[in-house]
Every structure is written in C-alpha cells, then in structure tokens.
From TrEMBL:
GO terms for molecular function: DNA binding; sigma factor activity. One of its GO terms (biological process) is DNA-templated transcription initiation. This is RNA polymerase sigma24 factor. Keywords: Sigma factor, Transcription, Transcription regulation. InterPro entries: RNA_pol_sigma-70-like, RNA_pol_sigma-70_dom, RNA_pol_sigma70_r2, RNA_pol_sigma70_r4_t2, RNA_pol_sigma_r2, RNA_pol_sigma_r3/r4-like, WH-like_DNA-bd_sf.
C-alpha cells in the first residue's frame, strides 16, 4: 500500500478497506496533529478533533473519493478538521459562559458589550447596524460567542492580527457613534 497516494487510499476507504484507512491515518495524522496544534494549545481538544475528523473520514469517504487526487484528499481532511476545531471552540465557549454577577462597577463596560447584552436603544442599534459587516462579524464572535482572538481567527478564516484590528475599529466606531 506504500505506493498508493492519499487519493487512492481514500477511494479504498470508501469501499470499506480498513487497512487503507489505517495507512491513510498513519500518513496524515502527524501532519494534521501538528497543524491543529498550531491553532489550539489544548492537547485534549486536538485529540478530540483528530478523532472526530477520522471518524467523519471513515463515514463519508465515499462522497469525497470520486473527486480526490492526493492533494484534494489531504485538503478535504484539513477542511473537516478545521470545521471540527471551530465546533470545539464554540462548544468550549458555550460551556465556559457563566452569567455575570456584578456587585459594583469599577470599570465602565465596553460599548459593544452593553449593546450586545440585550438592552439596546435605537441609537445603539443604529450604531451596530452602521458597522461594516466584517467588523460586525468579529464583534459578534468575540462578544456574543465569547471567543478569543485566536478562536475568532479560526472561525472567520482570517489572521489574528486582522481580527484584533477589526475589533479595535469596531469599538472605536461604536464609541464615536454613541458619544
């Protein structure tokens, strides 16, 4: 099986060939693990995403096998893994979200937090709607979904620096619109 490329292995996996699946895993899991670790430092999350990815490969190889050469098979693996990683980030954010209890305010909440917390007046709603869609998406991911800069970067498919820049621009635009 050493002479088969990943696309050929995937076609065999689609036919239920367990040895081909094992070989595909042996060849691609180190690369996929390294790529996931560049995006997530939590080894448990990486292991879970890796397992979910290869389970999805086993279950749906037939849908991809018809179109796959070696490169597209590896690209397909990465696409599955990236989606699973974003799902894991979202699940973690939901699980970690705890209702805030404020006993006193030492720092004024950020404008976007107030706006997205629920009690929006017409000016605030207009300020949010006036934001460009890319800024609104970053704000929604970071404030409503509670994602970190890195998680937002993965979710939206943009560099972390761009996420930071968009978040800063959104905050400035909201402050200016509301002052």
């Amino acid at each position: 099986m050493e002479t088969l490329d990943e696309g050929a292995l995937l076609r065999r996996v689609a036919r239920g060939d367990r040895r081909a699946f094992d070989e595909l895993y042996r060849r691609t899991s180190p690369w996929l693990t390294a790529r996931l670790r560049r995006r997530c430092a939590d080894d448990d999350v990486v292991a879970e995403v890796l397992q979910d990815t290869y389970l999805a490969v086993w279950r749906s190889a037939g849908s991809q096998a018809r179109h796959s050469g070696s490169g597209s098979a590896v690209g397909w693996l990465w696409t599955i893994a990236a989606h699973r990683l974003v799902d894991a980030f979202r699940a973690r954010a939901r699980a970690e979200r705890v209702p805030a209890v404020r006993t006193f305010a030492t720092v004024a909440p950020a404008a976007e937090e107030e706006a997205l917390a629920g009690g929006m007046d017409a000016d605030l709603e207009q300020a949010l709607l006036a934001l460009p869609p890319n800024l609104r998406r970053v704000l929604r991911a970071m404030v409503l979904d509670g994602l970190t800069t890195r998680e937002t970067s993965v979710l939206l498919g943009m560099p972390e620096g761009t996420v930071k820049t968009y978040a800063r621009r959104a905050r400035i635009a909201l402050r200016e619109a509301l002052s």
